[in-house]
Amino acid sequence: MAVNLRCHSVDNACLPSSLPPGGSAGTPGTPPPQSAEEAEKREHQARAAEESRQAILAAHLDPAARARLARVALVKPDVARTVENMVMGAVQRGALQGRVAEGQIVDLLEKAGGTGEGGGGGKITFQRKRAGWDDDSD
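Predicted structure:
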């Protein structure tokens, strides 16, 4: 096994790595693809898994809930993905009774930290500074 040096362009630091000669690091956590066919196969599997996920969500969310989740995904995709995972988990456990309504999605969004008191976002409050001549008895 040959030891190669990987250099980072930001700080020009070179780190040893155990890559085969001419190999590439690829995405962390996944081995480099053996061929273009294997890369295409992985991409196809990922697409199929995402289509399956969307079909399950479509079957268990009512239209208003799906629309709400889609709007949240535009602004905060990580929070929307967390809520989708919560719904998927409930589906897999068999904990859902019927379809998930928009109000339930709002509750899940609050739990996921996207909105509400504990979420760090959501509410904006304005405090007006009063001048000395303002009278509170208006």
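Summary: Residues 62-115 form a domain with the Helicase, Ruva Protein; domain 3 fold (CATH 1.10.8.140).
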